[in-house]
From TrEMBL:
InterPro entries: MIP18-like, Mrp-like_CS, Mrp/NBP35_ATP-bd, NUBPL-like, YlxH/NBP35. It comes from Paracoccus marinaquae. The keyword NADP does not apply. Transmembrane segments: none annotated. This is Iron-sulfur cluster carrier protein. The keyword Nucleotide-binding applies.
Length: 358
């Protein structure tokens, strides 16, 4: 009999990283799956330098896991996001991160027809990647699209959409968003010094979010996509209290553990009275770029089954493909291209347009 996922995780939990933390403490193992005699997982390093220092960790994990009974093969992929481009240009005089001002319930954003939050239960499932590609696919389908990066703990849209200028605020009151690939963009990451927001607590987060929703000149939009931080915290709560959210989309990978967290996120949106518009499965299958063989590294179909169980729409699936990550790291989302993956994002966009939310 093959070992369980938990046993595999426990076996590598105490391997030390160069910075002295253990793998478990650093929480950088993603999507570990045991498939017969094969264990596969991703180590997500903070940046390229950290990734290149992990070869001994990788070798040790490989050695330990291969020694487990019944395990014949261990496949480890180390990934790292590219460095975020440095912000340039004149800083707006606007002070971001003040306390929230009084507001009577969730408000619409003038000119914005629909507000769609993109959430996930767990970090690292590809929510930001999905959001940038969906935004591009919707823009290609002729929609007027805005993208608000509210992932306060790891704003990645500037990198993924290839923007780095600091947004201007000529009058010190309104913020001018940026534009890339046909999408109007604003990210909390463009307004802050690196690392600044992570110390914020509820009221500051609420104030910053309120500013991004209400003080940015979004213009006329068919849909504003909001890239949320993972989990069920203050930002999600503030968003649903401050903005008239049309609905939420939940992104998950197919494994049970991600799905469990996704269920919590769905629960939260239900409690906050933001209708869940549907579920998307990311990293659904792996198509070998050389031979075209399709493999299901993290399982397949778990999210569709979960959607069925919960009576929610299943909106579609995006395969695990190196080009998705490379395109995201280069600031040109893969949905700009013509291949199969771009078509998968185009189908998702079409679904949302069909549902009348984009
Ligand atoms: N379909 C995919 N194929 C290949 N790589 C992917 C895919 N989706 C996401 N990735 C990669 O996985 C990593 C995590 O993705 P991303 O940052 O979008 O996740 P997230 O859920 O937004 O994470 P966070 O918890 O930091 O908000 C990135 O390196 C991204 O390029």
């Amino acid at each position: 009999m093959s070992v369980s996922r938990e046993v595999a995780l426990a076996e590598i939990a105490d391997i030390r990283l160069p910075d002295g933390r253990t793998l478990a403490e650093a929480d950088i193992v993603r999507a570990l799956s045991v498939d017969g005699g094969t264990i596969r997982f991703v180590i997500e390093a903070a940046d390229a330098a950290a990734a290149s220092s992990l070869s001994q960790v990788e070798a040790e994990a490989q050695r330990r896991l291969e020694a487990l009974p019944g395990i014949e093969r261990v496949q480890i992929v180390v990934t790292a996001p590219a460095a975020r481009p440095a912000a340039a240009g004149a800083a707006p005089s606007l002070k971001i991160g003040r306390h929230a001002t009084g507001q009577a319930g969730p408000q619409p954003i003038p000119g914005v027809r629909s507000i769609v939050a993109i959430g996930s239960g767990k970090g690292g499932v590809g929510k930001s990647t999905l959001t940038s590609n969906l935004a591009v696919a919707l823009a290609r389908a002729g929609r007027r699209v805005g993208l608000l990066d509210a992932d306060i703990y790891g704003p990645s849209q500037p990198r993924m959409m290839g923007v780095s200028d600091r947004p201007a605020s000529p009058d010190g009151k309104r913020i001018e968003p940026l534009h890339a690939h046909g999408v109007t963009i604003m990210s909390i990451g463009l307004m802050l010094k690196e690392g600044e927001a992570v110390v914020w607590r509820g009221p500051m987060l609420m104030g910053a979010l309120q500013q991004l929703l209400q003080q940015v000149n979004w213009g006329e939009l068919d849909v504003l996509l909001i890239d949320l931080p993972p989990g069920t915290g203050d930002v999600q709560l503030s968003l649903c209290q401050k903005a008239a959210v049309t609905g939420a989309i939940i992104v998950s990978t197919p494994q049970d553990v991600a799905l469990l967290d996704a269920r919590r996120a769905i629960d939260m949106f239900n409690k906050l009275k933001a209708p869940v518009l549907g579920l998307i499965e990311n990293m659904s299958s792996y198509i070998c770029p050389n031979c075209g063989h399709e493999a299901h590294l993290f399982g397949h179909g778990g999210v569709a089954a979960e959607a069925m169980d919960l009576g929610l729409p299943f909106l579609g699936e995006i395969p695990l493909q190196l080009e998705v990550r490379l395109a995201g790291d280069s600031g040109r989302p893969v949905a700009l291209g013509e291949g199969e993956i771009a078509q998968a994002y185009a189908r998702l966009a079409a679904r949302l347009i069909e549902q009348g939310v984009a």
